């Protein structure tokens, strides 16, 4: 069962929450800021120097002064180019490092989230936050902040210089600023809302694509390529429609800014020309003043554009920090207690109930379940679909926490034990084994990083996997492909068993590993399980008769409650639910299974 109702995440963050991620690289920022200040000073000096150059040429007729001024300008531009390189490199390096750290932090947070978090969200949506949204923040850190700072310096410096040069023209030059600010605020807010919508649509499309690609065999088996293409196309079309609205708003925004800026320049040029005619302003001064006016207009327009980009980045920041600041509901306690070593493997479910917290009105998945498993005992959990078998087993390694009651391991409430220690003590072999796209050796050693080649091979031999692994093109160095696609189902299962053998857990949770396999694979896996189960407490979600007979005791769940308990023979003799399931669903000792025992979330 999957709960589709999402928990409300905390209030969104703002871009200032990026500062803690940037602070470690503040030395580079300081040097970049110094380079930026010097580069901006050269830019601000340029119009005034041009004015001197024109006056030297047209009023003084001084050829030598003209040459010196021109050469000086070239020298200044060389220095400015070096400063711009230093500033761009330092800021880009800072942005790359900070965003790289943010990606790692975000991914690490995802790994900490409990099973319920992923049951409520699609993988593609989370990947969109990790890629698209963080990428937008990277643009802000790498170059937009630098551009913002440059334009602020240009605006302030230009206004100061204009005031010193010709106070009467300053009010004319700055008359357009209030209009630009008003337009920026109004359009910026709207752009932020629309951009957040665009990012949501991109996330939805990514989720659809990821889902289809990860299930490509199912898609192709049922000839649903057109359906998936239409689903993805629909999401993309919705995103394009929202993006077109954003393009329209942007277009109007920049059109208004351009009109206001150039009208302001025309007015300044007209008023300045009158002053030249009156003799109160030289031609060089007028050109300098006009260049400063253009600087100011460009700075105002750039700041308005930055405000637009800032609003878009805020939308991305909200999505990123929503995830970063989401509470981790299942975590190690601050005062965690150590597990005894080696653990004995006593497991107790003490009056355990479970329901989804977002829907308290729904019937409980588990209802006051009490069960004690002795060290070294093998207990099979059977029952119809939806009885709560897998949910019960998921409470032991704390993939979920019970709503009521306690789960004890060797007398300790599992909620008081550090999660890494708890989960290292528990091995899980799933019905559908999860392999990664690395090598066979890497997959076997996944639960025990750093294991030697001999230890890996020994685990593979115990799992009856060494023979087929040795026959692979590169042996243990063979890449198995995404989710182990290059291996058969039986081979994947034996690799998963070898992984469990290598970690040597004190308690084993086994979601029947022989389900849906051919007879030869089943025989080999049964032999591997005989080795794996020796000397450890085992909890089995039972599907097949061979597994039921291996168990010391059977526990029958129905609608979240234990309704029967005993050996195979005892339960058959009682003629209850287990007997009915047996009579209906078991055909012979080798191939009959309890159908419908499909795992719940976790």
Largest sheet composition: 6 strands, mixed
Spatial gap, N to C terminus: 10 Å
Write the element-wise H/E pattern from the N-terminal end onward: HHHHHHHHHHEEEHEEHEHHHHEHEHEEHH
Q: Regions with pLDDT < 50 over 5+ consecutive residues? A: 1-13, 587-602
The total of beta strands comes to 10
Globally, the shape reads elongated
Defining key terms:
10 strands, 602 residues, six-stranded mixed β-sheet, four-stranded antiparallel β-sheet, disordered N terminus, ABC transporter transmembrane region fold, alpha/beta
Structure description:
There is one protein chain. α2 (26-60) packs antiparallel against α3 (63-112). The relative contact order is 0.09. The chain is elongated, with a radius of gyration of 35 Å. It has a six-stranded mixed sheet, with helices on both faces. Helices cover 62% and strands 9% of the residues. With 602 residues, the chain is an alpha/beta fold. A hairpin with a 2-residue loop joins β4 and β5 (412-413). It folds into three domains: 15-324, ABC transporter type 1, transmembrane domain (ABC transporter transmembrane region fold); 332-425 and 505-602, P-loop containing nucleotide triphosphate hydrolases (Rossmann fold), CATH 3.40.50.300; 438-495, no CATH class.
Task: Itemize the secondary structure elements and their pairings.
Blueprint: H1 19-22, H2 26-60, H3 63-112, H4 115-119, H5 123-165, H6 167-174, H7 177-214, H8 216-221, H9 225-278, H10 283-324, E1 347-354, E2 366-373, E3 378-382, H11 389-395, E4 404-409, E5 412-413, H12 419-424, E6 426-429, H13 440-444, H14 453-462, H15 466-471, H16 489-503, E7 507-511, H17 519-533, E8 537-541, H18 545-550, E9 553-558, E10 561-566, H19 568-574, H20 577-585
